[in-house]
Each structure stands twice: as structure tokens, then as C-alpha cells.
Specification:
Helix content of chain A: 25-40%
Oligomer: heterodimer
GO cellular component, one term (chain B): GPI-anchor transamidase complex
Radius of gyration of chain A: 33 Å
Radius of gyration of chain B: 27 Å
Largest sheet of chain B: 9 strands, mixed
Keywords (chain B): Membrane, Transmembrane, Transmembrane helix
Distance between the termini of chain A: 105 Å
Shape of chain A: elongated
Strand content of chain B: 15-25%
Protein name (chain B): Glycosylphosphatidylinositol anchor attachment 1
InterPro entries (chain B): Gaa1
Pfam families (chain B): Gaa1
Strand order of the largest sheet of chain A: 5-6-4-3-7-8-2-1-10-13-12
Distance between the termini of chain B: 62 Å
Number of helices of chain B: 19
């Protein structure tokens, strides 16, 4: 009910904006889709009536949009008296919008997005509403003075709306600032409506609180915080949302931006209580986790290949295409069936072709994929792993992914996620990871962690026009103006490790905050911008970091581990898969786990498997091989290899290309068939531990023994997928024409003609074929017949 | 002068002066934002190549990969420009670098684009392709490649010798007579039309007057050139080696003739850009059009369905002849002696058939192996260079093979019978039919030319035809002389007629090139001719002199 009212309110505002531009625009406003919520609008208007100087009877009878218009006009009149210049500005703004709106329906995509945004808006508002209830639990909401104190919150909501409207406009920085000015004015308009809102939501608080108490009671002794017994004290925050953006300037001049959104929820999905009240955690995912008894879920969609040699290591690696791996709870009996259902459901949630995952591309790795959350599961029969190397990632996958965020794409870091820029990049990868994590240091209870990540690399030559200069606006064509109001922390990190004195690049606005972290075995320094601090935004009230390179190409430290894979040989009968794994560490060997899942139509000759490094045979210490079954399951090959220092290890295996049945070919058989990326999981000696001789910046006593925690770190590297051509029949038109016509002639006409013209008679046994041919020739030559 | 008089030293010096500027290329490509790699290779030729003045070949290929944004490194296109000694192909390398810079700033690439500058033209290309596909068919030394772009979908090789060109020539004939998909030629033609560049194939402009005699003969000449080139089994441009790997490839050569209207490098660049964008948009490999065709002009083609029956009819003669012989053999004419006893002639022994077969094939093996093996011996005893030694040895062995009949008959115990030559001829005719059939399937032009010369000969040869005349005809139609005529004919068609002396020199160099093509790139013409066609011809020679 509250949601409905809020929705109504929201549309009321839109109507308000649009209607004031004139009755002509009215027909083209987005109100068209809101017929169902007309009642909500009506009620809101009705409640406002006591203040509005118009006849109440008329309002109840007339259609709501007209009322809105009238109402707005009266308001507008008031404002005109007070601030005529601003009104003009608003008019301009709105006419611009009005011009834009009729153009919208021509582009289907945008329309769709808008629709999605509207529906999402509904969700967002419920969530946000609840959030506000919690934080303002003990406050008394009856007096109108309170509203002034809550002006900020209102502002954020207002801004959200503005950003949605903004999407329709071509974005320019000037507009951003102008709209900010408008915000302040529109807040004043909003004061009354918020009063209504608070009243409506008040009822919800009570029920919500009850729910929480019940829930807490289910796990009382384990919870670290005492349950909120008395109403005035705030209840324990059951879920928590954090967002951050890491920006790493790459030596090639490209720039790497990695978004991380983390929602932790103390709910017990597997408990007896059904989890039915969702706040920050997306309900769609929560239900999936509950229904399919998922312990861990990792899904990634990637467009492009991470170039380790140019870019170093990514924060979260992922293979090109789609990757899905899931650990199920050990209560699941039919894992394959559940997996099948789960992939189909996820396919719907993420608008991806995950439903193409079936037994022919699913494997159960025995060692490569261990649970990332807590819980020591060893039985890999509950693990399923599949990749779809052919999956193409685009906006249709981005939109549902953004929907899972508490703030959607309306506030916080996620305003930067605009598809027109994200897909104008060199590399794009988005992922969702769900796993159980410890709730407290003692780890007595677990929480569910949802981590949404999005990695994108912008190219110097295409996106950057060759100028070695990056800014948030240049990357995303947006700037940051606020944190997500639901986020407990919202930060932007810029990697300045290679730039201690600012000799490499110049970063503005400068920030005094610095932090250090050991990332991927290397100690990195980051400049931090805390978006929850108003100071981060400066006087312009928007954060647009500018990063200008001073030096030309810098030398990057060569990544310690990288790999390469290709198909060798020619012809369509046989071939050889080569996997090269490079260890660039100068003196340390380290183990890697190589996993490759090869489709059945490449028949691997496992006896030809050779592993060699530095020209010598390198015996894997562990091999897990599961042969394929035609049309049922793929080959799975897992090996534990020791990579000698400073070496290239080459794994080769020969294969034969199978001839498919003609229905098994894809519609584009001459494109080739994909073989998914191999996965190399490794414990790599860290760079920090590498320089045992370095006393730089460190006291002497700290550096004798190599620091154990940093001695090695876990890393996963994906190889390229392969495109293999199989022997393909000519499916082209002549083939079909010949087949069809020949069949028709032979079967239809031929048999009929045969019956019509044949005369049946008894004949003596005929002479042999050779004799007959000989007779023909003899007749030619005039020799007497045989 | 004394320094340069020694050819080997001169060669080395020239080699040093005109080495490819590897470092500069690497730096330039890196500055254009490509991933640059190099590949070193070395190759010792079986004997010095006098045409191109090379023997010990060492070189470096430089290639830069333009990584397509958001593409998973599964597909690639190749643009190559051979960087030959001297300033011959500088313009092509320049255009390649310019295109690389332009392509780099575009967002629309869906396939990686590999810009390859290969040294020592075909040898470098062979090394690079073998490195890329990790095969080694010819025993070349190359360093493994560090960067790859997945499976190569199409390739173009660019050869320009001047800043401005009057027309662009499309070369399609590749190794062993392989041809790229016809759509590649269509693409080239379409873009030439669009941009307004004159385009040719075999150096001949397409003409519109099909129905006139001159137009018809022009088309026939163009097609004959293609047939001869295809029959030569050698790659006629750097693209020729790609075809082995099922990569559609063609060479584009700039021709600067005396026509007044010139086209500048920008236009060539635009043409290439257009072609690459088209190829970039391909969802599948080029496969919709023909792989087997002959082109009487750039706009027309003769498909396999039209030309194959002609060959089929030729082969049919052999089959009918074989059938006839078989029928004759299966019912031997009984001869009645004076006393009225019917004598059935004894069927010939296996030995009488096997001996000529084995001996002629041994001659073939000698022709295949000895020239290269015995070059040092020949150089020691005769005042010739290595190359001349190889060619002359080959010709000597070829001629010596003609002495075979007498030898065979000395080895045979008895007289050759009537039955004997018929069995031998039956075997030889079937052998030839199979041989030609297989050749025509692989390389139609070669099969057809061989069929034209060998089939009449196979049809009429018996021991009973006039010996001298037949022997002359047979020698004229022998594979070796066919090659000689083909050389003259080719020069005639190219409108560069040669004198007998020049033609003979050309013939010698063609033989040496054929042997080198086999050793370097795996061209099959030399082994086919030496090991199969020549022995087969010897069998007929044997039949002619059957006693």
C-alpha cells in the first residue's frame, strides 16, 4: 500500500512537472503507463486538498490529472509571485523535456529502459521508505517542523527523480549544475507531500519491527548484538550496503575502473523461517537462493578478454562470455535437476542465454573451484561449473544487473553505469557473487554476502582520443554528486602506487586521504574520496576526478603468471590444443591447477597429452580426467603442475574433429565452434615477498623473514577461448536445390513414369554384365557377338 | 670493385645494407598502439636461388596486433606487406602503418587485425604461418610466436612499388593451385567500383564487349593465363601460403603503367579500409561462393560445373580405351596353326609387366632425388654453378630415361608378346586415368593441361604405329617439353614474348624455381611430375618400343 502511494506520489510529481508546461504536452507525458495507479494519485491529491484553495467536491469527481494540473497551476502562481526568474528557468527546462518526450517512442530501447526504470522505481521506493523508517524510528513525525530537518533526505529523493529525468536528456555538465539549483527549489514544493508520506509509512514501521523481533528470536544466542528490546533504541542493522569504485591508471595509457557493490545480510536463507521481507538484498536473488538451496553462486558476464600482459592482474578475473559456478547445499538430492532449473531461472533474471547450459557443457571440477565463502565442503558433487564462451554481453544484461542494486542507477556510484559509455570500452565484465560470510569475528553465525562487481577498461585510442588524460566525465559522461543514501560506505579509490611524488600523473582534485592495501600480492597505495563526506565534492558539488599523465609510457612490472592457448595444425581432421603457461618469477617455482573443459565434438587423444617446461618433461602431480560421452558430457581435464621459475610450460593434447549430425550444426556452422577458456588457478608468490633484499621504507627488523601472509596469493587466470572449425557440409542453396529437385524427380516423377511405361514380361536369365558390355563393343567393331 | 666481384660476398653485403628496419618497425607500431611481436627465422635453401640471390636466409618478421575492443581473441584478419630488400615495397609498408594508426582509433572492430611485415617475402610468410599454426612441414627454423589472435578468417597481402598507381591487380592463385573463395574477388571488385579504381586480374582489364571476337579472345587469354598460373602450383603472391590453412587470402598489387589517370595511396587506403570493414562484419568464414573457378575477367567466372565435364570427357577416352583393352584381353583371339591345333597364347608373366613399372618409377625417384643430392659432385667436375648443376642434372636424368626400353628388354628373358604390351598398356592407361583424375580434383588446370598432352598419346600408342614419327610426337608431348611450351605460351599471353635463347634460360630457371618451391613451401608439382607423371609417360614410351 505504501509502495503504491509512493508510486502515486512520484507520478504526481512527474505530472506536476509536465503539466505545468501546458495542456498540449499532457497527451505525451509518461503518465500513459500509470492508469492503474491513478487511484493513488487521486488520494494524494485529495489529502493535499485542505491546503489547496480549490473545491473539494470537484476534485473527487474529476479525473486526477486535471486536478494535478490545477493544483500545479495554483502552486505555480504562488511561485511566480515569489521567484519569477526561477520559474522562467523551470519553464525552459520543462519545455526541453516536453520536446524530448515525443521523440522517445521512436527508440524502442530507450522506451523499454524507461519502463523498466519506472517499475524499478516502485521497488526502490519501498526499500527506501523502509530504510527511512528504521533510521528515524523514534522520531515523532506529527509536526511539520520536522520536515525541515529532514530536508537532506528529501533532497536525495528529489535528486533521484531528477537523474531519471536526466537520462532522457542529453547530458551535459552545465545541465547538471543547473538542475542542482532547481532541486533546492523543488524541495520546498515537496514539503507537504512528505508529510503525507511519513504518515502513511508510520504504520509500516510497527509491522516491520515485529517481524524483526520474531526473526531475531530465532537466532538469539548467536547474534552478536543484543536484540533491540526497547523501541527507542535503533534495532541492529541487519543488512549493510557498501559501494566503492577503484580506478587504476594502466601503463599503456588505458584506464581500469572496477565497481564493487556489497550487500551483507544477516538472514539465514536455509533456516526454517522463510525470508520474506527484503530490504537491501534483492528479492529475486534471495528467492532463487532459497528455492534452489544454493550455498554459493558466482556468475559473470564478460565481453572482451583481459590483457594480462598490458594491464596486469584484474581484481576479479572472468573468462570471455558467461561463466556460472554454483555450490549447492548438501541437502540437495537431485543436483543435476536443480542445476538445470537454476540455470533457466538465472537466464530469465539476467536476460542471458544461460539456458543453453546443459550436460554437454557442465563439468564438476574436482579441485579448481573451492567455495569462496565459509564452510569446508569437499564433496564436489555439489559443484557445477559451466561457461558459455559465445555469450555476448550488452545492455540487456546490464539493466537487470543494475536492478539488483539498492539504489538502482539513481544515486551513488551507480549513476556512472551508463551503457552507452560502458560498452564503448575495451573490456567489460559484470559479475554477481553470492556467498556466506562470517557475521562476526567469532564466526558463530553466517550472513549472506552479495557482491556485484563491474570492471571496465577504457581505451586510450578510442575512448580517450589519444590524449593521456582521464576524468570521470570522460569515462562515464557523468560525475558524482552524492553517495547512495542507503550505503554505509561509499568510496572512490585511485591507485597512486606508481605515483608517489606525482611524477607519473597528476590527480585533481587532490585528496588528503591515502590508504594502503595488499592487493594481488602487491602493496598498493590509494587516494580515497569518501562520498559520504560532503567535502569530497568541493564547491562545485560534484566530483569529477581528473587524471592527467605527465610521463609517457611507463614500464609495467611483468605479471608473474600469464597464459596463452591456441589450436595448432591445419586441415579439418585433426588438430592440437596448445596451452602455454608462463612463470615470470625469477627464482621461485609455484604450483598451478589447470582446468580445461573441452566439448565432446573435439575428441581428445589423451595419450598424446604432453607437459613440458624448459624442454624437459614435466610430470603433473595430480591429473583428474573425465572422458567425454558423445552428446552427453564434455571432457574434463584437471592437472596440478609445478611451474619452474622463469619458464614456459607447454601442455599439448591432440584431438580429432568429430563429424556432427546435420541437425547438430549451429545456424552458422562456418563460423566455427567455441571451446571455453581454460582456467588456471595458482598460488603465486607475491611481489612483496619477492624482494627479500629491499629495506625500502621498512624498518630492518621487519624484513628478515619473509612475511608469511603475503608470501603468496591466490590468482586465477583464464585463457582465450578457442574457435575451432569442424568439417561442415555445404549447407548452401545449391545443395538444397539439388537435394530437393533430385528427390522430387526420383521419387515422385520417376516411380510414376516407371509404372506407366513398364511392360511386364517373363524373360530368360540375362547374360552377365561384362558379357553385355563386351557385346556392345563387339557390335561397334563388327566382330561377331559372343 | 674487387670487393663486389665475388657474388657471395656481394650478396652478403647487399643483405646487410637492405635488412629490414626491425627496431624502427617495432617502435612505430608500438607508437600506434599495437601489440608488437617479432619472429626470427632462418632457412638454408637446398641450392642457391639465383633469381632472388639468396641461399642462407635469415630474417625477422614484425607483426602488430590490433586487439578488437570487447572481442575474445578468437578471430583475426591479416594485412601483410612483404618488406623486400631495396625500396620495392616501401609504399605498401607505409600504407600498412597508416592503416594501423587509423584502424586503432576505431571502435567497430570485432576481429583482431594483424599487421604483418614479413621479410624475404614467401619464406618469411611461410615461417610466420608455420609459427602461428605451430606446424612444421618444410623443416624451417623459426622462433615461436608470442602473440596470436585466434583463427584467421581472411588475409590480404599488399604490394605497391610506387606512390601512385594506375590500377590494382588482384592475384588469387595460391600454392598447389588453391584459390580463395570467389567472394573475396567479388569484394575487391565491388570496392574498386565504388571507389573508382581500375582493377584487373592477370593484368588484364575487364572488357564489356563479350560478344565480339576480340573481346572473346581477350577473355580467353585472361583465362589461359589463370590456367597456366594455377597449373604452375606455385604461390603467385604472399597470400598463396595462407590457403593451406583454409584462410581466404589474396594479393593486391599496385600497377603503375603509362595511363594518365593515377590513383594515390589514400585511395588504396580507403579501398583496404572498406574491404577490412566488410571482412570484419563477417559472421562466418567466406564459404557461400565458389572455391573452384576460372576467371576470364574480374567480373565473370567459369564454375567447376562448366569446366569439369571437359576434363571428364578427356578422361573418358582413357576409360574406354582401358575397357577395350580389357575386353580384348579377356577373349584372346585363338590362332589356328597349320596342323589345325588351336594355340592359346600364354598370358604374359607378372615380371614382364612389373619390370617396366619398377624401372620407370626408379627413374622417377632418381629424377626427384638426384639433382639436389648430386649438386656438389656436379659443381666439382663441371664448370657450372650449383643452381645450373641441379637443373642440368634433372634434364640429364630426364633424357636418360628415354633409353629405358632397351634396358628393359635386356632384362626381360624372352620376347615381348602381343598380350604383354596390351596388359602393360592397360595398366598404364588406368594409371594415367587415376593420376589425372586425382590431379584435376586438386588442381584442375594442371590436370587439364596434362590430360590435353598425355591422353591423345595414351590413346593411340601401340608398338605397331610408325616408330620414328610416334617417337617424335611422344617427345614433343612429354611433360618436360610441355613445360617448355607453357613457358613460351605464358610469355606470349603476357605480351612479353621472348626469343628462343631467353626462353631456354627462363625454362631453366622455371625448373629450378619448381624444385625450390617444393623444398620451401611444399609445392607438389615437382614430386608429382617426377614421381608419377614422368614414370607414367615412360610406360607409354616403353610400349612404343615394345618388341
Amino acid at each position: 500500500m505504501a509502495a503504491r502511494r509512493c508510486l502515486g506520489l512520484w507520478f504526481f510529481l512527474i505530472t506536476l512537472c509536465v503539466v505545468s508546461t501546458g495542456a498540449d504536452v499532457l497527451h505525451t507525458t509518461p503518465v500513459t503507463g500509470t492508469e492503474s495507479s491513478a487511484a493513488g494519485t487521486e488520494t494524494v491529491v485529495a489529502r493535499e486538498l485542505p491546503e489547496a484553495p480549490s473545491d473539494p467536491g470537484e476534485h473527487t469527481a474529476a479525473e486526477p490529472t486535471r486536478e494535478g494540473e490545477q493544483n500545479d497551476r495554483t502552486r505555480g502562481g504562488e511561485q511566480t509571485l515569489g521567484q519569477p526568474t526561477r520559474e522562467e528557468e523551470q519553464e525552459q527546462e520543462k519545455t526541453r523535456e516536453g520536446e524530448q518526450t515525443p521523440a522517445q517512442p521512436t527508440r524502442e530501447e530507450e522506451e523499454e529502459e524507461e519502463e523498466q526504470e519506472q517499475t524499478r522505481g516502485e521497488e526502490e521506493f519501498t526499500r527506501e521508505e523502509e530504510e527511512e523508517e528504521l533510521t528515524r524510528e523514534e522520531e515523532e513525525l506529527t509536526t511539520e517542523e520536522e520536515e525541515l530537518t529532514r530536508e537532506e533526505e528529501e533532497q536525495t529523493r528529489e535528486e533521484e527523480e531528477l537523474t531519471t529525468e536526466e537520462e532522457e536528456l542529453t547530458t551535459e555538465e552545465e545541465e547538471l549544475t543547473r538542475e542542482e539549483e532547481e532541486q533546492t527549489r523543488e524541495e520546498e514544493e515537496e514539503q507537504q507531500t512528505t508529510a503525507q508520506q511519513e504518515e502513511q509509512t508510520k504504520r509500516w514501521e510497527a509491522t516491520e519491527l515485529e517481524e524483526e523481533h520474531v526473526h531475531d528470536a530465532a537466532v538469539p544466542p548467536l547474534a552478536g548484538d543484543p536484540p533491540a528490546a526497547d523501541p527507542p533504541s535503533p534495532p541492529p542493522s541487519k543488512d549493510d550496503f557498501q559501494e566503492e569504485l577503484v580506478i587504476r591508471p594502466l601503463h599503456s595509457g588505458d584506464i581500469y575502473a572496477s565497481f564493487q557493490f556489497r550487500t551483507v545480510w544477516d538472514a539465514d536463507f536455509m533456516g526454517d523461517q522463510k525470508v520474506s521481507h527484503y530490504r537491501l538484498f534483492p528479492k529475486s536473488l534471495g528467492q532463487v537462493i532459497t528455492k534452489f538451496s544454493v550455498r554459493e553462486l558466482h556468475i559473470s558476464f564478460t565481453q572482451g578478454y583481459w590483457r594480462t600482459m598490458q594491464w596486469g592482474q584484474p581484481y576479479l578475473p572472468s573468462p570471455p562470455g558467461a561463466e556460472l559456478w554454483v555450490w549447492f547445499q548438501d541437502t540437495v538430492t537431485d543436483v543435476d535437476g536443480t542445476w538445470k532449473e537454476l540455470t533457466n531461472v538465472l537466464s530469465g533474471i539476467f536476460c542471458a542465454s544461460l539456458n543453453f547450459i546443459d550436460s554437454t557443457n557442465t563439468v564438476q571440477p574436482s579441485a579448481s573451484f573451492k567455495p569462496l565463502g565459509i564452510g569446508n565442503v569437499t564433496d564436489h558433487s555439489f559443484l557445477r561449473y559451466a561457461t558459455l564462451p559465445r555469450e555476448i554481453v550488452c545492455t540487456e544484461n546490464l539493466t537487470p544487473w543494475k536492478k539488483l542494486l539498492p539504489c538502482g542507477s539513481k544515486a551513488g556510484l551507480s549513476v556512472l553505469l551508463k551503457s552507452e559509455k560502458l560498452f564503448h570500452s575495451t573490456f567489460h565484465s559484470q559479475a554477481v557473487h553470492v556467498r556466506p560470510v562470517c557475521q562476526d569475528p567469532q564466526c558463530r553465525t553466517t550472513s549472506m554476502e552479495l557482491r556485484q562487481t563491474l570492471n571496465v577498461v577504457f581505451d586510450l585510442h578510442t575512448s580517450g582520443q589519444g590524449k593521456r588524460e582521464w576524468s570521470l566525465f570522460k569515462m562515464f559522461s557523468r560525475t558524482l554528486t552524492e553517495a547512495c543514501p542507503l550505503a554505509s560506505s561509499s568510496k572512490v579509490y585511485v591507485d597512486v602506487t606508481d605515483n608517489p611524488q606525482g611524477e607519473q600523473f597528476e590527480l585533481s582534485p587532490a585528496t588528503p586521504l591515502l590508504t594502503q592495501a595488499v592487493v594481488l600480492g602487491d602493496r598498493r597505495t590509494y587516494s580515497v574520496y569518501d562520498l559520504t563526506q560532503q567535502a569530497s565534492f568541493g564547491s562545485s558539488r560534484s566530483l569529477n576526478m581528473l587524471l592527467r599523465w605527465k610521463a609517457a609510457d611507463g614500464e609495467m612490472l611483468r605479471p608473474l603468471l600469464h597464459s596463452e592457448r591456441y589450436v595448432a595444425g591445419y586441415g579439418l581432421q585433426a588438430g592440437e590444443i596448445h596451452t602455454l603457461i608462463y612463470n615470470h618469477h625469477p627464482y621461485r617455482a609455484f604450483p598451478v591447477l589447470l582446468l580445461s573443459a573441452v566439448p565432446w565434438y573435439l575428441r581428445l587423444y589423451i595419450h598424446t597429452l604432453t607437459v613440458s617446461s624448459k624442454g624437459k618433461d614435466n610430470r603433473p602431480s595430480y591429473i583428474h580426467y573425465q572422458p567425454s560421452k558423445d552428446r552427453e558430457r564434455p571432457h574434463l581435464l584437471e592437472m596440478l603442475l609445478q611451474l619452474p621459475p622463469n619458464s614456459v610450460t607447454e601442455v599439448t593434447v591432440e584431438f580429432e574433429r568429430a563429424l556432427l549430425k546435420w541437425t547438430e550444426y549451429t545456424p552458422d556452422p562456418n563460423h566455427g565452434f567455441y571451446v571455453g577458456s581454460s582456467v588456471i588457478s595458482a598460488l603465486v608468490p607475491s611481489v612483496v615477498a619477492m624482494d627479500t633484499n629491499s629495506t625500502l621504507d621498512r624498518p630492518l627488523f621487519s624484513s628478515f623473514f619473509p612475511c608469511k601472509e603475503e608470501a603468496s596469493y591466490f590468482m586465477r587466470v583464464y585463457t582465450e577461448p578457442l574457435l575451432v572449425n569442424l568439417p561442415t557440409p555445404d549447407f548452401s542453396m545449391p545443395y538444397n536445390v539439388i537435394c530437393l529437385t533430385c528427390t522430387v524427380v526420383a521419387v515422385g516423377y520417376g516411380s510414376l513414369y516407371n509404372l506407366l511405361t513398364r511392360t511386364f514380361q517373363v524373360d530368360e536369365p540375362s547374360p552377365g554384365l561384362a558379357k553385355r558390355i563386351a557385346n556392345v563393343i563387339r557390335r561397334f567393331r563388327g566382330v561377331p557377338l559372343l | 670493385m674487387g670487393l663486389l666481384s665475388d657474388p657471395n660476398r656481394r650478396r652478403a653485403l647487399i643483405g646487410m645494407l637492405t635488412r629490414m628496419p626491425v627496431d624502427w618497425l617495432v617502435r612505430t607500431m608500438q607508437a600506434r598502439g599495437l601489440e608488437v611481436y617479432t619472429q626470427r627465422f632462418s632457412r638454408k635453401l637446398p641450392f642457391p636461388d639465383e633469381d632472388k640471390e639468396r641461399y642462407m636466409v635469415k630474417g625477422t618478421n614484425v607483426y602488430g596486433i590490433l586487439r578488437a575492443p570487447r572481442a575474445p581473441r578468437t578471430e583475426a584478419l591479416v594485412l601483410s606487406a612483404p618488406c623486400s630488400p631495396g625500396n620495392e615495397n616501401n609504399q605498401a609498408v607505409g600504407i600498412l602503418l597508416g592503416l594501423a594508426q587509423y584502424f586503432r582509433s576505431q571502435i567497430y572492430w570485432a576481429k583482431d587485425i594483424i599487421f604483418l611485415v614479413n621479410e624475404h617475402d614467401l619464406i618469411g610468410m611461410q615461417a610466420w604461418l608455420e609459427g602461428y599454426h605451430h606446424t612444421n612441414t618444410t623443416g624451417m627454423d623459426w622462433s615461436p610466436l608470442q602473440g596470436r589472435g585466434g583463427s584467421i578468417q581472411a588475409a590480404l597481402s599488399l604490394e605497391l612499388s610506387s606512390d601512385v598507381v594506375t590500377s590494382l591487380d588482384l592475384v588469387l592463385e595460391g600454392l598447389n593451385g588453391q584459390l580463395p573463395n570467389l567472394d573475396l574477388a567479388n569484394l575487391f571488385y565491388a570496392f574498386c567500383q565504388k571507389i573508382g579504381v581500375l582493377c584487373t586480374t592477370q593484368g588484364k582489364l575487364p572488357r564489356n564487349d563479350w560478344d565480339t571476337t576480340s573481346g572473346y579472345s581477350h577473355a580467353v587469354q585472361t583465362m589461359m593465363l589463370m590456367v597456366l598460373k594455377q597449373a604452375s602450383s606455385r604461390p603467385w603472391g604472399d597470400h598463396g601460403l595462407f590457403l593451406r590453412y583454409h584462410i581466404e587470402a589474396a594479393s593486391i598489387k599496385g600497377v603503375n603503367s603509362f595511363r594518365p589517370y593515377k590513383t594515390d595511396a589514400t585511395t588504396v587506403g580507403r579501398l583496404l579500409e572498406g574491404m577490412y570493414r566488410k571482412l570484419n562484419n563477417l559472421l562466418e568464414r567466406l564459404h557461400q561462393s565458389y572455391f573452384f573457378y576460372l576467371m576470364p575477367s574480374l567480373t565473370r567466372f567459369v564454375s567447376i560445373g562448366y569446366y569439369m565435364p571437359a576434363f571428364g570427357l578427356l578422361a573418358l577416352i582413357l576409360l574406354l580405351r582401358a575397357l577395350d583393352l580389357w575386353v580384348q584381353l579377356s577373349s584372346p583371339p585363338t590362332r589356328t596353326t597349320e596342323d589345325g591345333v588351336e594355340v592359346v597364347p600364354a598370358s604374359p608373366g607378372v615380371l614382364s609387366i612389373l619390370t617396366p613399372l619398377v624401372i620407370s618409377h626408379l627413374t622417377g625417384v632418381a629424377l626427384y632425388t638426384l639433382p639436389v643430392l648430386s649438386q656438389e659432385l656436379a659443381v666439382e667436375h663441371f664448370p657450372v654453378s650449383e643452381t645450373e648443376a641441379v637443373v642440368l642434372t634433372a634434364i640429364a636424368i630426364y633424357t636418360a630415361g628415354l633409353a629405358l626400353p632397351h634396358n628393359t628388354h635386356r632384362l626381360l628373358a624372352g620376347e615381348g608378346t602381343e598380350q604383354g604390351w596390351k596388359v602393360l598398356k592397360l595398366v598404364a592407361v588406368l594409371y594415367l586415368a587415376v593420376l589425372l583424375g586425382c590431379t584435376a580434383l586438386i588442381n584442375f588446370s594442371l590436370g587439364f593441361i596434362l590430360a590435353l598432352t598425355l591422353v591423345p598419346l595414351a590413346a593411340f600408342i601401340t608398338p605397331h604405329v610408325p616408330k620414328t614419327l610416334s617417337a617424335v610426337v611422344m617427345v614433343i608431348l612429354s611433360p618436360g617439353l610441355t613445360l617448355l611450351f607453357a613457358v613460351f605460351f605464358f610469355q606470349e599471353l603476357q605480351e612479353t614474348p621472348v626469343t628462343l635463347q631467353e626462353g631456354w634460360m627462363l625454362y631453366l630457371s622455371v625448373i629450378s624455381q619448381g624444385i625450390l618451391d617444393h623444398a620451401l613451401y611444399g609445392s607438389l608439382l615437382y614430386p608429382l611430375a617426377a614421381l608419377l607423371v614422368y614414370p607414367c609417360w615412360l610406360l607409354f614410351w616403353n610400349i612404343l618400343f615394345w618388341k
